[in-house]
Amino acid sequence: MTSLIHVNNLSIHFGDFIALEDITLTFEKTNGVIGLIGPNGAGKTTLISAIIGQLKFHKGFVNVNHEDVAYCPDVPSFESFLTPKEVLEQTIRLRGKPVKNYKKKILDVLKEVDLIKSQNKLVGGFSRGMRQRLGIASALVLDPKIIFLDEPTSALDPFGQKDVLQLVDKVAKNHVVVISSHNLKEVEKIAEEIIVLNEGRLIYKGSLNSFSRENQTLSLIEFSDSKISENLDYILKENNISHILVDKAIKFEKDEIKKVLSLVNSYADYIVRIEREIFSLEDAFEAHVKNRNKK
User: Fold this and answer.
1) How far is 160 from 152, CA to CA, in rounded Å?
2) Closest to 152 (Cα-Cα) out of 195, 187, 117, 203
3) Which pLDDT band holds residue 215 (cuts at 50, 70, 90)?
4) Is pLDDT at 63 greater than 90 in this prediction?
5) Whole-angstrom Cα distance, residue 189 to residue 208?
6) Beta strands across the sheet bearing 271-278
7) 218 secondary structure, DSSP code
8) What digits encode the pLDDT tens for the residues 116-162?
9) Is 133 exposed, middle or buried (0-12, 13-18, 19+ CB in 10 A)?
């Protein structure tokens, strides 16, 4: 399969700060959603900026046809006196294309993002959600093969988030959509594959299900006091029991339940609940990052 983008040994430094180090990955899909996740400062936006040609590399290279790539920032901004049609026409002109060849495409894209009824209204009166959809329309109008969306729901209310995620799902039927997000529950709903960055390094690329240990069940014990869970965190580490500390709760593999219960006996009066739950992307992300940081 021919790759859309190939990133090879890419490193980007800002003075003494290492933003990305030795990143190698390939984008080969023809459609679907890829989640790009990582803590703040992990290098997500830097990677996107490098791919779309906005940053100078310290070393390495990116093979990409920029005609195949589109980008939408977290908070798209447009001149308030323009209409959606004029915004898309401007996008086309900036790429050096004749607008007359895209008249039908403009209307089709505005319909796809549910802005066709607002095509002649001024953007200055648009809500954040409408501006986000217009940003995605601007990315779509030249029919790219891959679209990068940087935190597309970060500035939206829950209703706006839902609308944008539904739009992303629809767009991904005919394009590759790479969505950078801090909201792991959001990524878990729509992505099939994920790219995980931590401290400027690639720690995983592949199936989301494989990363989050599909269908694995965890046991959870929650306490009334976070100091108790922190004490247990220390005890489990001393006993080499793999686990995740989440505020007042401890999560661990279900096969370890007998060992853990024998260790929490003296804290029984502080137990609020014991239950089982599916290992989520958030659990997997925390476990991978913690394991990486120990090395």
Assistant:
1) 10
2) 187
3) very low
4) yes
5) 10
6) 243-246, 249-253, 217-223, 271-278
7) E
8) 999 999 999 999 999 999 999 999 999 999 999 999 988 788 888 88
9) buried
**Count of C-beta atoms within a 10 Å radius of residue 185:** 10
* Token digits of residue 294: 């120990």
* Dihedral pair phi/psi, residue 137, rounded to 5°: -60, -40
- Domains in the chain with CATH codes: 5-211 (3.40.50.300), 217-278 (3.30.70.790)
| Residue 99 binned pLDDT confidence (cut-offs 50, 70, 90) | very high
Mean pLDDT in residue range 175-194: 90
Residue whose C-alpha is closest to residue 13's, from 52, 46, 45: 46
pTM of the model: 0.77
Residue 61: CB partners within 8 Å, gap ≥ 6?
8, 9, 10
